[in-house]
Amino acid sequence: MIDQPIAVTVADDGEPRSFTWGPYEYEVVGVPQNFFRRRKWWQEAGDLTTVDQKLWRVEASCDSSEFRLYDLLCRPSGQWFLYVQWE
């Protein structure tokens, strides 16, 4: 788990189209897949009314390099995080 803040550009329908992680911009290819994850609310401080978190699994590339899978998390505040980079 990476869990680092990122900047995400989304389409009109809310799907991620690109994201910036550090100094690099990643372009999303294909169709992003959204899914939900139950957070460990008993271990985390904060809002206890939000238990499920919406994530997007995307295939993305930086500088036309090899595509990789990433899970992007959008918190209820609207802040995006790079949650997982799959190897």
**Helix content bin:** under 10%
Strand content: over 45%
The residue ranges in which pLDDT falls below 50 over 5 or more consecutive positions are: none
Number of helices: 0
Order of helices and strands: EEEEEE
Termini separation comes to: 12 Å
Query: Total domains, how many?
Result: 1
Biggest sheet: strands side by side, in what order?
Answer: 1-2-3-4-5-6
Instruction: Identify the overall geometry.
Output: globular
Report mean pLDDT, rounded to a whole number.
88
Strand segment count: 6
Task: State Rg.
Answer: 13 Å
Largest sheet: 6 strands, antiparallel, barrel
Structural class: mainly beta
What is this structure's SSE topology?
Blueprint (H helix, E strand, L loop, with lengths): L3 E7 L5 E6 L2 E15 L13 E11 L5 E7 L5 E6 L2
Antiparallel strand pairs: 1-2, 1-6, 2-3, 3-4, 4-5, 5-6
InterPro entries: DUF6504
Protein name: DUF6504 domain-containing protein
Organism: Kocuria coralli
